[in-house]
Design brief:
The chain is α+β, with helices and mostly antiparallel strands. The protein has helices spanning 35-44, 95-102, 138-141, 169-190, 209-217, 241-253, 261-272; strands at residues 31-32, 47-51, 58-64, 69-70, 85-91, 111-113, 118-130, 148-163, 219-234. Strand 3 (58-64) and strand 4 (69-70) form a beta hairpin. It is elongated and about 70 Å long. 34% of the residues are buried. InterPro entries: Split_barrel_FMN-bd, TR_PAI2-type.
Amino acid sequence: MNQFNLKHRVFLFFSNISPPDLIIFLPSAHAESDTEVLLNVIKENPIGILITGIQLLLTRFPPMYPCSIRACSLQHRGQRINRPQLRAHIAKQNLQVKAMLETVDGKPPGVLSLDQDVLVIFNGQHDHYVTPKYYTATKPDTGKVVPTWNYSTAQINGKLSLYYNSKTPEAWVFLAKQLHDLSEQCERNIMVFTGGERPQPWKVADAPERYTELMQRNVVGIKIEIGKIEGKFKMSQEMRRGDRDGVIRGGWRGYLCTRSRSEERCMIRRLRS
């Protein structure tokens, strides 16, 4: 297990389970099937957890944007998303990279594709304890309420290509574009360094070329063609209307005050639908 903080999340693995089978428990009230909504979850929360069935390893990525993992950027054709990808990079010394390379006999020079699908999990910002006191209809009526934890998550399954040999033109070009696109995405969308009245964004070209080339040689690129995407928004939607209103009121007093307007609207829309 590499680059994974057990203080944050714990995964239980069984030897006969492969990543595509690690499906979240998905009651209909909590299910989200809108691809655009789920891709927005990834864009707004681009730190992904990559899980492979190879030696049961996982890695917590730097940013991925639909197209990279917190280094995930989203690719699409025209205005409609068509076969979105996740793009990322990871340290060449990562044990998960070694495990992936060992699974392929007669490795092609530069880029290899895994036969088995991988799983990537993105956790949204809707993540908070819910006290039974928020259930203002059921608690005084029957008292049959218990605490819970509300959260949102998106998970994708797909085919992974590993750009592992930076000495080959294909891998070198992929890595250069990946690092450029990721920096651009984070500088402009996270730091809001857009120029004008705001600071200018940092660019890869701002660092010495020999230094960035050295850094580029020490990472491998990852591209995942998304085959399946599903999500879960657990926000107490299954409760009575009075209880849902109580969750909204409690959220405004508590954790919603630290969330963005879009998150607040998302929660309220789901609870009042």
